[in-house]
Each structure stands twice: as structure tokens, then as C-alpha cells.
Amino acid sequence: EGSHAPQAKMNHRGVDFTVAPDSEPNVWRWRFWIGYKVTTGKTETALRGIAARRAQIKIDEAIRKSKGDRQ
Q: Among residues 44, 43, 48, 45, which one has the least CA distance to residue 5?
């Protein structure tokens, strides 16, 4: 689960996302797409599971925002 781990593809609330190690130690890149909009970011942690959870939080925020935009 360290920085040499390959990219992981996951799904949260129907949204596909990936978490992959960055070239910096203990930094993970995450990416998700809702429709045609791609959102990316980085998070600093030693564990992929923590990075994935932080990406899931961003997905939840994006879902809430998209629902608010439709009202």
C-alpha cells in the first residue's frame, strides 16, 4: 500500500474514481468524473485507504453541489 502501489480504480455512490501514488513520497493523486466533468486533486497521507476516503468526501461534495445547481 506504499508509494509504489499501482493506480486503483474504485466506485463511490455510482461515481468512478482512481487513486494513484504521486512522485512525491506520501502524496496520492485522485481523479473522478461526473458526467463529462473531471475533478482531480492530491492528498498527503501514507495510506491509500485514507487518500481514497478523502476522494470520496470530494465526490460527496460534488454530488451535493450538482444537486443544488439543478434546483
A: 48
- In whole angstroms, give the CA distance from residue 21 to residue 7: 7
As a whole number of angstroms, the distance between CA 6 and CA 3 comes to 8
39 has a pLDDT exceeding 80: yes
Does the pLDDT of residue 15 top 90, yes or no? Answer: yes
How buried is residue 49: exposed, middle or buried, by Cβ count under 10 Å (0-12/13-18/19+)? exposed
Determine how many CB atoms are found less than 10 A away from the CB of residue 45: 14
Strands 15-21 and 8-12: antiparallel
